[in-house]
Design brief:
It is built from 20 helices and 24 strands. The chain is α+β, with helices and mostly antiparallel strands. The chain has a five-stranded antiparallel β-sheet with strand order 2-1-5-4-3, covered by helices on one side. Strands 18-19-20-16-21 form a five-stranded mixed β-sheet. A four-stranded antiparallel β-sheet has the order 12-9-22-17, covered by helices on one side. A hairpin with a 4-residue loop joins strand 4 and strand 5. The longest helix is centred in the middle third of the chain and has 22 residues.
Length: 685
Amino acid sequence: MIAYSKLSKLRNTYVGARGGVEYVPMKRLASGRYGTEVMEGFEEAGFPLPLCKAARARVRCFDFHVDVKHEVTLTVKSGKKMVERTFAVDNCGNVYRKNIIEPSGFWNYISEDSGWIIHTSFVLHGTTTGRTASRGPNLQNTPKRGESAKLFRKVFRPSIEGWKFLELDYSQIELRIAAWEAGETNMLEIYRQGGDIHAATAAGVLGVPALKFTAGLTDETGRLLIDEANSWPSSGELLRSLSPGARRTFTVKEFCELKRFHSKPVNWNRVCPVLHSQSTMAGPYRNNHYVPQWYQRRFIAATSTQQELCYLDLNSGYFKDGRGVTHKRRALHRWGTKKCFYEEDLYTRTFGTQECTKIERLFFGEIDNKGPHGLDYLCKFGQSGDWEDALDHLLAFLSVQKLRTPKGLAWLQRELGTSERNTLLDAMIYLRRRFCALWAEGVWQIADASLSPTKFIFSDHPVTIYNRSCGPLTRMCIGCNDPSYDWCGSHTVYPLSSEKVLILTHLSWVRNPYQLATVPRPNPNPFRTAITYVLAFQTARHLSEEEVRQINFIIKMRAFRFIASGEEEWLYPEKHVSVGDWANYGRGFLLMPDPRSVPFTTGVFFGNGDGSRAFGADEYGRRPWDPDYTVLRDSSGESPEWKTFQKFQGEFARLFGPYKRGLTHEFGNTEDRFSDDYHRIVCSY
């Protein structure tokens, strides 16, 4: 038996209401809402009402006939407003409230004058995927599964007697075309045999025969596995489910435990629909470059005729020859990018006896294809070009780059407490945007080494974290450890090319560099929306050779095992830089942006003109409803950060003079020198 509620829901969703007049019975007339006003209104109109029971059900005039005897319109109080309501009484003395029902659903498109015929419109290429769309009304998405849906579809009849509806649909047409265009022999063979590609893929993932999967899986063989995977919450859903006081920075292990990495598989359909398809692929997808080749080519010297890098192994080890004599392995090589910074099957997933290389091909393939666009955006910052979405592509690439290296995966292994490869790759993909929000809110600086004879090197962990309180021999910097990137004093250093480097500094550190460098910055939660002020990017800072060598030394000290550069001599910055000066490079301000060019903003607010969408946050990404949104002020009404910020500006001006260390693109800031009056005022802070 078909439940009436299901049919009613189908009718309300798709058919809608015809429109007309609705009469709602008035219950408890003597003491209910509007009761006294209604009785007095009818009495003043000359139709006194008896104290009788109201009708039990809502009645619409197009469903049942209501014999209305009298109607009266009254002004009654609804909430805080006075509104007009019409009330009616029938011959039996039942009182109703009269409502006007506007037509909805299909009733907006049919009428008695049109012969009750629906005329829909079909739009070719009406969707982004090229499919045909239906409008006015949409007749392509009517329900078709289930007994109630079958009854609902019987509502439609051809307008010509004796004709019938004929429905045709291609079977998996997009995948068939993709298989033909790509020459995917496995998929083509499945289609030629009349198989289902989705069933074959799922059977391969679960390691069961396709026939057994099609016939139906028991809980023990996989059905429960699929159900659990489809019920995974997203990062946003997870955080929204927490109370405001519980929204904090999670460790990787805590986050992964909340996401249930150890007990449930990743729902790969949320990352890439075909990432779990099984195929054992040889060639470039098995030799995984954790530092992309296109990035390595940015550091090849212009004078190199063989397009090779100087590749240094910091832990080359030893070997024994045939006579048993121990020798040290050669540490320095001149190799092309194909042989540098790669491991075989670093990203290959295993499912029993089968292997999957789709992470390298699809997941990293898309990120690496968009990464150069973001790097070019910074290298050519301020120049005209098509830079749409370039910053978002850059942040996504940098965030994944920090996790995809052997050092990043070793760090994940330590945080998760497991060495299982599939679990680590699951965590890497789910945490792929872990660093984006805090980097986006930092102070961006693009420094230049074009005037220095020494150029930048890069390492097997190219996204480098530097904290002046965490030297190379401290516990936080041994092995796969890194200073936490959300600490106030942590700078992120990333060479863009042999002559360009990106330096990211937390705003809280620029405003107050006198605090502890190892305390978390305000609002360190990484899983949220963030805004970047592009016009405040500092560019045109030309580094001296000493500064370039100091940055190279930082990169080398934070490397995991390998470093590379265009020239051999650049690989040994320790010949010129001492590790004992770790906290005092550049007189303590090597990676600091010019604070005089950093605006002291208090937040950002924007929205659509019609008010349909709005966003507001302070400079640290805290939303207006967060408990610490309001900046604390002292008795004089000033922010403590403003005082330390002025102090730092004065110290910086006295050290480096009136010339700007970095140019911004804000209006009126094109000069490379501050005025004498402004410099004198800042020096007095």
